[in-house]
Amino acid sequence: MDILQSILLGILQGATEFFxxxxxxxxxxxEKFIPASGDAALFNVFLHAGTLAALLLAMQSDISRLLGExxxxxxxxLRNLLAYFKSSASHKEPDYVRVVTSNYGKMFLLILTASAxxxxxxxxxxxxxxxxxxxxxxxxAGFLLTGMLLLVTDRIEPGTxxxxxxxxxxxxxxxxxxxxxxxxxxxxxxIMIVAGILLGFGKxxxxxxxxxxxxxxxxxxxxxxxxxxxxxxxxxxxLANYAAGLLAALxxxxxxxxxxxxxxxxxGFKVFSxxxxxxxxxxxxxxxxx
Length: 290
Hints:
Blueprint: H1 3-16, H2 23-33, H3 40-58, H4 60-90, H5 103-131, H6 136-153, H7 168-179, H8 188-198, H9 203-230, H10 236-266, H11 270-287
Helix pairs in contact: 1-2, 1-3, 1-10, 2-6, 3-9, 3-10, 4-5, 5-7, 5-9, 6-8, 6-11, 8-9
């Protein structure tokens, strides 16, 4: 794999990551035609780091407000803890403050809850997902499952729920469902939007929540893969190829993320469903060739 091939795979990652189709499934299929030099799974880590950077840049306003709420809530918890100890000493009623005071504060806790429950499912399944990294039948089946769920969801009228209407049990359920998407070919974005709409989320919020929820999940996966990177010997040429793929994924992701959000908000999921059926069938056919 030369640097041009790395860039092409990076563009493919950035172009598919934010649509409800599996970017990993696309990479598995594409890498059968463009074999990666070195470790293909490690190269894919670099590509996902690129699209994570694109997401952080594109949604920096939301993310900065979520982080601001996190620090404000930590301050509120510390103040309440201090009020408790003061009241114990003085035998007076403690002067507590509200910790969650905004939609962004509630959204932060929903994301935290969903991320924690995701880990419960994702960590045990992760080894199985990595084992099937190059298995086109697995990824093809994942595409077909995603397509069926998108087709069903396209016929359902989205709800109107926003963060204040969503329970932590619902957030935990979404997290458990998200954990399954470590299996190849299953679109994390697609499944999260499907789960949100089935739980009554507004369509716009389901899309936004899906994107924001991917930040801690992808970041956590990258941290787990960091150990592999530190223990892998790479030549300068391979590292340069990986870096080129990362940069291409970042740029392509920045270009497509807005289009992805607008397309999913204004259109249905039927076209993505049909596309998933086609690419899933192609993956399964190719599994008998490669």
